[in-house]
Design a protein that fits this description.
By secondary structure, the protein is an all-alpha fold. The chain has a two-stranded antiparallel sheet with strand order 1-2. It is globular.
Length: about 500
């Protein structure tokens, strides 16, 4: 799940880097990213940022070699880093397939259709946060939530004339609230394991910062909803409903597909087979409910198609791996009814691979650890220690591009510091979640940020200003630490809890 720093077993040990050497690749990366934003604008993810990460990796590799690290060790570190991201990459491909089959089957149009009739525009953003939060809490997965109900909510928001970035921010806020608080979430299990506490103590303690952060988030979205100037009128919504109902066979039975997917995820079916099952079931529903669309798309792909079997195979496969769009007389609806399948995820996968190469190269010479260890000495009080921990987790989300590393490495680094100050392990575990899990989606090249941006079809920097929960959670954690509010410490006569062993950590 996470890549660990290993020291090559050579007769001559490599030298440890100084802080300046460790910062050189970071400075190069920041410079290149700034240039990309200025020169490429919204197209930075088409290759510019990917190559920027590769160039920064090359600089990190040069620094590593000058320190005496062998190329084979650098290469192996890159491979291990990429390996840790492979589950995410496979899930991303399955999400692409899911989006295509859910569109063709009419699942997404049906969700949009009923959503437009149920949701009042003024409370839509509030309801989006609540719905995404409930689904994520039940499934334990922000990724599955965004890939399913999140896509549908984006569509409803577009039809209502609400900014995509605003809707995506609401989806992200709700999804990561549920991911953070669910006992089914992998990060929610990982954080207490690294800190040395148990799962439910960790979850209960997180409510102290999470509930205020979510409460403020809901209030903000309510205020925005009641003051927002909607672009769509009731007449526009009726036109959307008419366009969907004329093109698709809308039926409540299509809701069985997302219900089934959420059910099997709750039953702890791993995300990869769950998403594959959701895609295949949607494909079957497409043949049952939308045979006219299946034939229509097949004729666009091959005008000579006469066999229904051939038409079904062509269309289903195209929806899974390639571009598919359903045309209606309404241009706005046409924007909602398109998918790029697995192929549309390739730029994101390219970005993730490049980011993991950078993270692995930085790890190979201990450059990341050097930066973070230099920061620890500034932590003099409980408030500054929590702030430093959160900053370190954010740093790893930016540099290593992986939320698991952003939890594991700081967890191991700061465990002794928290213990020495008499702080109970749940203080560390909560801080790791507030800094590592929650902020990962705010970084465009992080596996989480890149994935959610691609799935929702909204650039990361467009939804970041509206991901209120994700920004408020670490701030509340820091604020309460400085105020010394409900910071748990060992009493003088209370024995310290057994710290988790290195071998136990490896199980995660």
């Amino acid at each position: 799940m996470a890549a660990y720093v290993t020291v090559p077993m050579n007769s001559k040990e490599p030298r440890k880097p100084n802080l300046l050497q460790a910062l050189i690749p970071i400075a190069v990366l920041i410079l290149l990213l700034i240039l990309n934003v200025n020169y490429f604008g919204d197209h930075t993810l088409d290759g510019a940022n990917q190559f920027a990460l590769i160039l920064a990796s090359a600089v990190a590799g040069i620094v590593a070699v000058t320190l005496g690290v062998k190329w084979t060790h650098i290469r192996d570190s890159m491979v291990r880093s990429i390996g840790s991201a492979m589950p995410s990459i496979l899930i991303l491909l399955m999400i692409g397939a899911l989006a295509g089959t859910w569109l063709l089957s009419g699942v997404i149009p049906t969700l949009i259709y009923y959503g437009l009739q149920v949701f009042h525009p003024k409370i839509f953003l509030f309801a989006t946060v609540v719905i995404a939060g409930m689904v994520s809490l039940a499934t334990g997965s922000s990724w599955s939530t965004v890939a399913t109900i999140g896509i549908a909510l984006i569509g409803v928001g577009q039809a209502l004339g609400i900014s995509e970035g605003l809707v995506a921010g609401a989806v992200i806020s709700g999804a990561y609230f549920g991911d953070k608080m669910s006992p089914l979430s992998d990060t929610t299990n990982l954080a207490p394991a690294m800190a040395g506490t148990d799962l439910f103590t960790h979850i209960r303690y997180m409510t102290i910062t999470t509930v205020p952060a979510m409460s403020v988030t809901l209030v903000i979205f309510l205020i925005i909803g009641f003051t927002y100037k909607f672009e769509s009128t009731p007449g526009d919504i009726e036109l959307v409903l008419e366009a969907i109902s004329t093109k698709f066979r809308v039926s409540p039975l299509l809701m069985l597909v997302p219900v089934f997917l959420i059910f099997i995820i709750v039953k702890k079916v791993p995300p990869l087979p769950a998403l594959l099952a959701g895609s295949l079931i949607a494909a079957v529903f497409a043949l049952i409910f939308q045979p006219h669309l299946v034939r229509e798309v097949a004729l666009e792909l091959d005008s000579s198609t006469t066999s229904m079997f051939k038409a079904s195979y062509l269309t289903i496969m195209q929806s899974i791996f390639g571009d598919i769009s359903i045309t209606t007389p309404n241009p706005m609806v046409n924007e909602l009814l398109s998918s790029t399948g697995m192929r549309g995820m390739l730029n994101t996968i390219w970005l993730i691979l490049s980011a993991m190469v950078f993270g692995g190269t930085m790890e190979s010479a201990g450059l990341l650890v050097k930066i973070t260890s230099s920061v620890i000495r500034w932590a003099k009080s409980t408030g500054s220690l929590v702030t430093t921990t959160i900053a370190t987790s954010i740093f790893f989300n930016i540099t290593a591009s992986d939320q698991y590393i952003a939890i594991v490495v700081p967890g191991r680094m700061f465990a002794s510091s928290y213990k020495k100050r008499g702080l109970k392990p749940e203080v560390l575990s909560r801080t790791l979640e507030d800094g590592g899990t929650i902020t990962s989606v705010l970084v465009p090249w992080n596996t989480c940020g890149a994935t959610q941006s691609r799935v929702l079809g909204v650039p990361t920097l467009e939804y970041v200003p509206f991901a209120f929960f994700n920004m408020l959670s670490p701030l509340f954690s820091i604020l309460f630490a400085y105020l010394n509010y409900k910071i748990r410490r060992y009493s003088d006569d209370e024995p310290e809890e057994k710290a988790i062993t290195e071998e136990e950590r490896k199980d995660y």
